[in-house]
Amino acid sequence: MTITNGDAQAFFHARGEIQDYTKALEILEKEYPARDGLDVETLLDSDKHGALTYNDFLILPGYIGFPASDVTLDTPVTKRISLKAPLLSSPMDTVTEHNMAIHMALLGGLGVIHHNCSAEDQAEMVRKVKRYENGFILDPVVISPKTTVAEAKELKATWGFGGFPVTENGTLRSKLVGIVTSRDIQFHTSDADPVTKVMSTDLVTAPAGTTLAEANEVLRNSKKGKLPIVDKDGNLVSLLSRSDLRKNLHYPLASKLPHSKQLIAAAAIGTRESDKDRLKMLVDAGLDIVILDSSQGNSMYQLDMIKWVKKTFPQIDVIAGNVVTREQAANLIAAGADGLRIGMGSGSACITQEVMAVGRPQAVAVHSVASFAARFGVPCIADGGIQNIGHIVKGLAMGASTVMMGGLLAGTTESPGEYFVSSEGQLVKAYRGMGSIDAMEDKKAGKGGKDSKANNAGTARYFSEKDGVLVAQGVSGSVLDRGSVTKFVPYLIAGIQHSLQDIGVRSVKELHDSVNNKTVRFELRSGSAQAEGNVHGLHSFDKKLYS
Ligand code: IMP
């Protein structure tokens, strides 16, 4: 039989009475009082189907009544501080040092500087975040008048650029005496000569406080390659480079406190007495948010520390954790926590659940804690287990205000450490749990993070000084190269906007409200549903995620 127009009506008529199509909405409302899919409480009813994590469910699509670009991602990270993107990088020594923290903040998120290094090193990183000004090079390579032409040539080969400012002491904040450009040294054959013989001394400089736009203008008019910025005594404070002019991106989402031009700085500490001294140094360096870094945050140490920080530094916001239950959260909230970090055992480099028998699947942990904390206006971070944009949105749908990522960001250019080629010939970077034997042994040996030196304390999160035997809670490995966060984070942001558009909500707040009032619905995924939701049946494929 061939099917022609009108046959479908006959087909359905044969099965029973067919309704007038114009009444679809009326009938939906009258005859289907319950919305399609499950509300969040039913979804997470662990009596019925065990405790769920991100891959165990999906969010049902809603109505798209606006463009994805209309979706705003403003969200609180503490009681007082909000971000424009719900994305945090984890305080791990293979993830967040100053470079990651600067770029996460520029892109609307926040990087939390790890503490597996000396307090001095950590404070210096906080200072670099606070001093950062888009376009200005705050730690230029500076040489001294005694540097030889040969050494300058070597520096050029190492750094891939020329144009080194020469100061009296060979350091920043010392009197500027000249600039050595590539042209000055290129054809100079007496390599043993000091750079003072070849450097340019007819310098065009700009005073500290010059705006980026003004400095760019001076650079353009001067036709020079570099513009040194000097203080009133002629000391070098920063540098602007012509080759960077084109690269000076505009960062409209940059995380800044109202009325401040500086980026927000966050760092992690432990809960020992020595951490109080560490925090004092971080606060002096300009810290805004401190994270008390513990895998099990519900402890007398953390409660005391929260109270001490709130009393000693009322201007600093304290994020406590980690927690996965309401009871743990209640203690920390009562002690004055301004934010909570949720997750135990869900991290990609984590073996806590296997070894310690404690933890909780992340979706249910986030919902349980975040729905309770919301009653007290305490925002929550869903920390760990984020492998893709879908996981980010699911973490937010479970009530988190932000998500924290380790492994997903460890392979970016801005994470500490160098790329290397794996035995399979792929470009990778090291990534390790802070409770891995590697990280803990580095602590015992006083080695510190990958790019920082000596006297660290970060892995105190996983063992105490008195422990004779190290019990690993994490592994050490590598992750694939992901390029720069300046491309990756905008990809994550655009993806979250599209996902929220599919769900039919215009903001993170509307997502939270719509989950709570049961208009956003969910569905459980069986094992085969999960297989169906992934690429299947292809002979081969290339999973390129963004361009
Ligand atoms: P990821 O984004 O899934 O890689 O998880 C990152 C999170 O894992 C961090 O923010 C920490 O909460 C957690 N984590 C870091 N190191 C360890 C470890 O050694 N054991 C258990 N959890 C860890």
Summarize the structure.
The chain contains 21 helices and 20 strands.
Give the helix proportion (percent range): 25-40%
- In terms of quaternary structure, what is this? single chain
Which ligands occur here?
inosinic acid
How does the major sheet shape up?
8 strands, parallel, barrel
In the CATH hierarchy, the third-tier topology of the largest domain is known as: TIM Barrel
Overall residue-averaged pLDDT value: 90
Q: Helix count?
A: 21
The total of beta strands comes to 20
End-to-end span in angstroms? 48 Å
Structural category: alpha/beta
The CATH class label of the largest domain is Alpha Beta
Beta percentage is 5-15%
Radius of gyration: 27 Å
Account of the 3D structure:
- This protein has 3 domains: 1-34, no CATH class; 75-133 and 254-496, TIM Barrel, CATH 3.20.20; 149-250, CBS-domain, CATH 3.10.580.10.
- The strands form 6 sheets. Strands 4-5-11-12-13-14-15-16 form an 8-stranded parallel β-barrel, surrounded by 7 helices. A 3-stranded mixed sheet has the order 8-9-10.
- The two termini are 48 Å apart.
- The longest helix has 19 residues, at 485-503.
- The protein has 21 helices and 20 strands.
- 34% of the residues lie in helices and 14% in strands.
- It is of the alpha/beta class and 547 residues long.
- It is globular, with a radius of gyration of 27 Å.
- 44% of the residues are buried.
- The protein binds inosinic acid.
- Inosinic acid binds at residues 90, 92, 322, 343, 347-350, 352, 383-386, 404-408, 433-436, 473-474.
